[in-house]
Amino acid sequence: MELRLKPLKTSALALCLLAAACSAQYRNHGYMPPQEDVEVVIVGVDTRDSVIETLGSPTAGGVLNEGGLYYVRSQFKTVGPFRPQEMSRELLAVSFNGNGTVANVERFGLEDGQVVSLSRRVTDNGLNDISFIRQLLGNLGNFNPSGLLQ
pTM value? Predict the structure, then answer.
């Protein structure tokens, strides 16, 4: 009787482990300030420093000091061995006008986004068709012994 229960227990344990491995796992990335903090920011009055003090450090900022502040939060769901799927994304964009005060506060979601295909630009070094021996022999004529004495 004991021998028949062992395979049954092992199968039940394996089934439980398999079910646990395929359960959804959620990961959060980024930071989004609470709505009540965002409502405190006053358009035309607050400055970059006061926004950072109120909302916290942004996820990304503009390239220049006059650029906007961006707060981004994403949630990803992973099930088993499959590729993670983005479930939600929020973006809070705070833009500033010429005198440094808040011009606009906008909130965007995943449904507002667009797929942007990035182009990869690589500088050509021109060495594709030149072998190592040719590079080595090509540098022999450029040798200057006076450079060794300096």
Answer: 0.60
